[in-house]
């Protein structure tokens, strides 16, 4: 295992007790990574591999950086096969839903595993593996291996990978279809209502009061900006008006107001500025 510490941006190596491949790894809420299935070397010989016992759970504690193993009790009413190239998602109640995989180590030909849906309950001690009853409203549903699985609310979305086959059937090749399972009743469905996910991690639509508060905030911000702009524009024109009035005050006259060259009280009569205002008004 290679660990990257985001606190100091450093890498470190932690050797597993028994290295596996093509397993599923699921991080629990308590910081423990649960490794299920996959294949492992036989007696330490990497040239000979076998499918790991699904009831032998490998654990890694991310808090103490230590490895351990834990045996799970299988309570399914049907035989549970070991598997690799399966997927695993963590349900809200810390149950791990395991889907698909293949029961052989073949890298090209993928044989179907039974049952293809399992539930690993990590809240029980020891862990418990059960096989839920599966229903579908999409017709016959193929089993996959080497695929992806992600949980959105209560919907497990499965995509890509390879379609597995029974022993007496030919290989079906790669999968190009996306499938959805409602994990509340373990039913494969052909449509989903995103408003009914009921997952606490899924954000809910904003309330009416929240929308009103946002509208008031936006309106107040806009009015504030407009008010500030009006103050600036008004101040600019007031400054220009005052400055213009100052320029018009050239010569103080006896009329008690501004006295310009052509403003001596007699329209059309020029004023000689070399004379006093009294002499300029005499004819």
Structure described in brief:
This protein has 283 residues and is an alpha+beta fold. It is built from 2 helices and 20 strands.
The CATH architecture of the largest domain: 6 Propeller
Major sheet, described briefly?
5 strands, mixed
The CATH superfamily of the largest domain is known as Kelch-type beta propeller
- By DSSP, the count of extended strands is 20
Radius of gyration: 41 Å
Shape label: elongated
Given the helix and strand composition, which structural class is it? alpha+beta
Strand order of the main beta sheet, please? 9-13-12-11-10
The helix/strand order is EEEEEEEEEEEEEEEEEEEEHH
Beta-strand proportion: 25-35%
Kindly, what is the distance between the CA atoms of the first and last residues, rounded to a whole number of angstroms?
A: 114 Å
Averaged pLDDT? 79
Number of helices: 2
Provide the number of structural domains: 2
Into which percent range does the helicity of residues fall?
10-25%
Q: Please give the CATH class of the largest domain.
A: Mainly Beta
Low-confidence stretches: 199-210, 250-269
Q: What is the CATH fold-level name of the largest domain?
A: Neuraminidase
Features:
Galactose oxidase, Neuraminidase, elongated, 29% strand, alpha+beta, transmembrane helix, 2 domains, Kelch-typ_b-propeller, transmembrane
What would your notes on this structure say?
Helices cover 16% and strands 29% of the residues. It has a 5-stranded mixed beta sheet, with no helix packed on it. Strands 14-20-19-17-16 form a 5-stranded mixed beta sheet, with no helix packed on it. The chain has a 4-stranded antiparallel beta sheet with strand order 3-4-7-8, with no helix packed on it. It has helices spanning 208-248, 277-281, and strands at residues 2-5, 10-13, 24-27, 32-36, 39-42, 45-51, 56-61, 66-71, 73-74, 87-90, 95-99, 117-121, 128-130, 135-136, 144-145, 148-152, 155-159, 162-163, 179-182, 187-189. The model is unreliable at 199-210 and 250-269 (pLDDT under 50). The longest helix has 41 residues, at 208-248. It has 2 domains: 13-196, Neuraminidase (6 Propeller); 208-281. The protein is built from 2 helices and 20 strands. The protein has 283 residues and is an alpha+beta fold.
């Amino acid at each position: 295992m290679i660990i990257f510490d985001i606190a100091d941006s450093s890498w470190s190596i932690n050797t597993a007790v028994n290295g596996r491949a093509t397993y599923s790894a699921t991080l629990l809420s308590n910081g423990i990574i649960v490794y299920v299935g996959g294949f492992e070397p036989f007696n330490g010989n990497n040239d000979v591999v076998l499918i790991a016992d699904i009831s032998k759970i490998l654990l890694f504690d991310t808090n103490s950086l230590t490895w351990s193993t834990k045996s799970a009790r299988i309570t399914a009413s049907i035989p549970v096969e070991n598997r690799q190239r399966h997927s695993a998602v963590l349900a809200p109640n810390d149950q791990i839903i395991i889907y698909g995989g293949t029961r052989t180590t073949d890298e090209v030909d993928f044989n179907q595993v039974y049952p293809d849906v399992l539930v690993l309950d990590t809240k029980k001690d020891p862990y418990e593996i059960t096989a839920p009853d599966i229903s579908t409203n999409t017709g016959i549903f193929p089993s996959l291996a080497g695929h992806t699985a992600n949980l959105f609310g209560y919907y497990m979305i499965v995509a890509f990978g390879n379609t597995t086959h029974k022993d007496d059937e030919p290989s079906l090749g790669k999968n190009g279809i996306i499938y959805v399972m409602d994990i509340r009743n373990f039913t494969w469905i052909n449509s989903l209502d995103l408003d009914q996910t009921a997952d606490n991690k899924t954000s809910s639509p904003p309330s009416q009061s929240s929308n009103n508060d946002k509208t008031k905030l936006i309106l107040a911000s806009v009015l504030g900006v407009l008010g500030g702009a009006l103050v600036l524009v008004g101040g600019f024109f007031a400054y220009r008006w005052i400055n213009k009035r100052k320029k018009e005050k050239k010569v103080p006259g006896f009329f008690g107001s501004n006295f310009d060259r052509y403003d001596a009280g007699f329209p059309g009569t020029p004023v000689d500025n070399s004379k006093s205002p009294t002499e300029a008004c005499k004819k």
